[in-house]
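#lab-general

N.A. 3:47 PM
ok so I finally got the sequence cleaned up, no stray characters, all 259 residues accounted for. can someone with queue access submit it? mine expired

B.Y. 3:52 PM
send it over

N.A. 3:53 PM
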Amino acid sequence: LEQGRLLAELDRGEGTCHWEWTQEGTGLDPGDPKTWDLCHPGGVPHSILQAEWERSPDQFMRTTLNVTNRESGSLQVIDPRAWDMCARTRDFPTPDAQTSLAFDCEPDSKAATIVACLGHADHIEVVDTGPGVDWVVPRLVELQEKWRLGPIAFDNRSPAGVLEARLSAAGVATRHVGLGEAANAAQGFSDLVHTQRIGHQRYPALDDAVDGAVRRPLGDGGWALSRKDSTNPVSPLIAATLAWYAHELAHGEQNLAIY
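B.Y. 4:20 PM
back already:
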C-alpha cells in the first residue's frame, strides 16, 4: 500500500497501476453517506452502512472506509507501530526456564491458541494455534510435563470454558482468570507494549489479532478485549495477555501492576 501510494505521487506514467478506495487523507466527513459512496464502491444500501456507523465509528473507519492510520481510533487496543517496535527473535525456552502458558478459544470452538510468557515476563510467543479445540488438551498435557510448568491460565467463563472438564479429567493444573483479572491483563499488557517493556516473536495469527482488536468498555473507564466488535479473531491476543498476567503472578508478583 505504501509503495503504491508513493508511485502514484511520483506519477511516472508507466509501470504501476494503484487502485485504492479510502477516506484516509482526503478530509472528507467519514459520517457523510456521500463519502461512503466514494470510498466503498460495493453498492451497500445506506441504511445498512448507517447502522454500522452508529454501532462503531472506529470499526467502520477501518473496515468500510479502509483507513489504515489508527491514531484516531479511540477503541484501538494496541497501536500497530508500537507492536512492530516490540518484535524480536528469541529461542524457545529450555525446560529450566521460567515459563507460563495460557490458552484461549474462539467462539463456537472454531480455533484455539496457546501462548507462552518467558523469562522475566518480558517476552511472549505463540506455542501453537489451530482449527478446532480437540487438540488443545493433549498438547497442554505434553507441554506441562515437558516444561515442568505451573498452572495454565484460561478464562473458564469464556469460550475456552468448553475445555474445563476435559482439562480436569486429564489432570492439567489450571488457573481460572475471571473478568476483572482478564481486564487487568489486557490493560497491563497494552501498557507494556506501548512503553516497549515486552517483546514478542512474530506470528501471523497474533499480529492479526493485535491489528483488529478493539476495546469493550467496563465500569468507570476500564475495558476488556471485545470478541464481538474486533475485526479479526482476538483469541491469540487474549491468550497472550493471560500468559503475561499468569507469569507475573507466578514469578514477579512484587512487580505486578494492576491497571
